[in-house]
Amino acid sequence: MSPSPTRRSALLAGAGGALALSAAACGSADQEAAGTPASAGAGGTPVKLQLQWVTQGQFAGYFAALDQGFYSDEGLDVEILEGGSDIVPQTVLAQGQADYAIAWVPKALASREQGAAITDVAQVFQRSGTLQVSFADAGITDVGGLRGKKVGNWGFGNEYELFAAMTAAGLDPSADVELVQQQFDMLGLLQGDIDAAQAMTYNEFAQLLEATNPATGALFTPGDFTVLDWNEVGTAMLQDAVWASTDKLADSAYQEQTVKFLKASLKGWAFARDEPEQARDIVVARGSTLGASHQLWQVNDVNKLVWPAPGGAGLISEEAWERTVQIAMDTRNAEGQTVITTEPDADAWSNEYVQQALDELAAEGVDVTGSSFAPLAVTLTEGGA
Predict the structure, then answer these.
(1) I need a surface site. Which of 91, 213, 259, 342 has the fewest CB within 10 A?
(2) Number of helices and strands (H, E) in the chain?
């Protein structure tokens, strides 16, 4: 249900927090597109990590590992290169401009099929963070409820979980819904131009909760919205993974370096789990353009994607990998294209190096499963300040 003109105008007035966050993120992307590095300092083996977006809590574990000296403890001098709207991290890696990269699995698989020699060596996000969000009064309580609705998606490879879910529910994405090209914010939903909008749990959903509900004069609450969670629907695809150079993995020195890098990184994620507020402070100090309240929400919700990790953080689940590959091969987007056309070869992923890292961390007394992890109850503020 689209809002009335009166409600639409009020929502625009109450969407300042979401708009401010979006503008800040875009501004940072423009400023950091060159890949401004954060470095551990001199000494040790130089290592470059390419992120897929700008400095934010999504990458808290890596910034924590840098800040706490976990990389230097392993003899690594790490530079973290920020991403941006014009940076494809797996391409940066494949071209030899970085030693490791963070990228979503389906997007990286598409690059592999086009010739990028890269291997998933650690699956840090065990769960998908993507939602489809609507106002509760729209009545979209399941995927079938999208029929006849204006459905937003970002495109650029972010849409396949949504399209797979619609297809499984018997909907033809090209005929049964009105697809809307969504900007990387939530204004389309707040304005009523979109009935169901794409959002990440750790970013855009928080933007909604930082905007004012005109009906109450207070911030929106989760109860004002209905979410479709692809983990629950069954079409979740693997997201943030650590990718390494397939060719360089033939070299024993790079293999050893990869184990060290993963060990320090996972120790950083354990730190972010146990000290989320300090991890937030580290990210903010690194130059995040998003506010402290928003960043604490982000660190907290990203932790939910990492922990608990029954087999050990970063271990690649064969079941989740196969589901991601199957969706990538079978699901067509609005242009009729699939992510990949053939099943990836055996070099596409490996648990060899992350398992070594986990074994070493466990031997040192680091909790690598987070079985007792409990997220914080984070209170957001207007605009996420």
Answers:
(1) 342
(2) 15, 11
Tokens, residue 158: 């972010």
Which sign does the torsion angle of CA 107, 112, 113, 115 carry?
positive
Distance CA 242, CA 358 (A): 15
Hey, what are 219's tokens? 């911030």
Q: What is the pLDDT along the chain (385 residues), one digit of tens a residue?
A: 333 322 222 222 222 222 223 323 333 333 333 344 565 455 799 999 999 999 999 999 999 999 999 999 999 999 999 998 889 999 999 999 999 999 999 999 999 999 999 999 999 999 999 999 999 999 999 999 999 999 999 988 899 999 999 999 999 999 999 999 999 899 999 999 999 999 999 999 999 999 999 999 999 999 999 999 999 999 999 999 999 999 999 999 999 999 999 999 999 999 999 999 999 999 999 998 889 999 999 999 999 999 999 999 999 999 999 999 999 999 998 888 999 999 999 999 999 999 999 999 999 999 999 999 999 999 999 988 8
User: What is the phi-psi region of residue 156: left when phi exceeds 0, alpha when psi lies from -120 to 50, beta otherwise?
Assistant: left
Determine if the peptide bond prior to 308 is cis (ω within 30°): yes
| Dihedrals phi, psi of 275, to nearest 5 degrees | -130, 60
Rounded to a whole number of angstroms, the CA Rg of the chain reads 20
The pTM of this model reads 0.89
Q: What is the widest separation between alpha-carbon atoms in the chain?
A: 65
